[in-house]
Amino acid sequence: MPQELIRRNREWAGKVNADAPAYFTELSKLQKPDYFWVGCADARVPANVIAGLQPGEVFVHRNVANVVHSSDMNLLSALDFAINGLDIRKVIVCGHYGCGGVNAACEHGHGHGLVDHWIEPIRALTRSHGEELGDLATEEARDRLVELNVRASVNRIADTPILKEAWANGDSVAVHGMVYSLRKGHLYLLENASRSG
Ligand code: CO
């Protein structure tokens, strides 16, 4: 029931207030996060929690399987505001092993409804990297696909006019690919998956 959320909220706000009485008034004055995070909507990968960040420290966009579609107005609006409104200089694309959206893209045939349209770029990766990924039956192959999807999202963000313009202006914005292990609770920086001006 939603009342349960209200109860938990008051409990949380009470604790925060007891520890730091100025916390909410200070935070309400200014949003100044260092990071823009593009991650999966999976309930197990909340950006603030897994990155050890407080409210106010990360501006977040999440969708199924952290896919970047070049025409996604939701993501583009958030990206534009992050770079040009909030002056954020660190963009993180974070995937996670065991991603349900990535797993769905590994299955033969469709049948997931609208989400099949959404994850089509991941299916495209299974075709373009078919030799390396094989029939995607192993966990290793699916983990590799998770990483390839992060790289593709990093590149698609880097190729937006928003990033091109920032770099043309000499802004030191960087886009980094990361992956999260549900089993270990650890974040990893993907090698050679960063783009900067
Ligand atoms: Co996921």
Architecture overview:
48% of the residues lie in helices and 19% in strands. The chain has helices at 2-19, 23-29, 47-50, 73-85, 100-106, 115-118, 120-128, 130-133, 139-158, 161-168; strands at 35-40, 58-63, 90-96, 174-181, 186-196. A five-stranded mixed beta sheet has the order 2-1-3-4-5. β4 and β5 (186-196) form a beta hairpin. It is globular. Bound molecules: cobalt (II) ion. Cobalt (II) ion is lined by residues 40, 42, 65, 96, 99-101.
Write the layout of secondary structure elements.
Layout: H1 2-19, H2 23-29, E1 35-40, H3 47-50, E2 58-63, H4 73-85, E3 90-96, H5 100-106, H6 115-118, H7 120-128, H8 130-133, H9 139-158, H10 161-168, E4 174-181, E5 186-196
The structure holds cobalt (II) ion.
Helix % is 40-55%
Oligomer: single chain
Low-pLDDT runs: none
Q: How are helices and strands ordered from N to C?
A: HHEHEHEHHHHHHEE
* N/C terminus separation: 48 Å
Structural class: alpha/beta
Tell me the strand percentage band.
15-25%
Bound molecules: cobalt (II) ion
Properties at a glance:
197 residues, alpha/beta, 5-stranded mixed beta sheet, 5 strands, globular, binds cobalt (II) ion
Short description:
This protein is an alpha/beta fold and 197 residues long. It has ten helices and five strands. Helix content is 48%, strand content 19%.
